[in-house]
Amino acid sequence: MQCQELLVQGLSLGMILGGVLHFVCLVKSHAAYGRYVDASTSSVMVPARLAWFLQELPALLVSLLLLLMADGNQGFKGHLMLWMFCLHYFQRSCIYSLLTKGQPYPFNIMLSGMVFCSINGFLQAHYLLHCAVYRDLWFSDGHFIAGLILFFIGMGINIHSDHILRNLRKPGEVSYRIPKGGLFQYVSGANYFGEIVEWLGYALASWSLPTFAFAFFTICFLGPRAYHHHRFYIEKFKDFPRSRRSLVPFIF
After folding, report:
1. 38-79, pLDDT tens digit by residue?
2. Where in the chain are the domains?
3. pTM (2 d.p.)
4. Which of 4, 63, 98, 156 could be bridged to 125 by S-S, CB 3.0 to 4.6 A?
């Protein structure tokens, strides 16, 4: 398959624009899933485990499909970057989805997530397999090594933070508690911070417009959610640690 350069640029710029629009909207009002679901609405609800599985799976399947269809002449770095992308979505669709104890998920939000994951899976896989060009000594590039390290640090933070959140409540409990431990000692959105670091590392390692566009969209989407979570804890708990920040330790 030949590189569809105009399509890659168009989808990347569209993702950046979408990130800006999401940021503007989500700063004013939070996305209606998880703790912010309005039970009085008539939205069709999907069990959380099924919703997360269906929402995240397209990114993995589309990427693997394009990988299987590739002719094998692509460089190792492109394959490595794509396998990193697939690793994240395997964890989210096949592991996280089975472990989550979240609330039922609105069908329309799940559907929009499936569309985004499908488009992004195609964008990342097509670019890395058919468009990216790397020099022979790419493995010694400082930004690649730093990005690789950041990616796995971010993934570790994200997985560990999700583990803390899952174990906040005892079976049958529905009330919220203040998360403690790990990076939750410093920020309210430790799981979001980990995912943002993960995709910033991915973008740094790849050093390309599509990967930076995805990292930018992630910041625009998760940043406001971390901010609203932080305000939720402050308003709900009088003993909430005042030194804790929303997303970035010691800063924001």
Report:
1. 666 657 999 999 999 999 999 999 999 999 998 766 678 888
2. 5-236
3. 0.93
4. 63
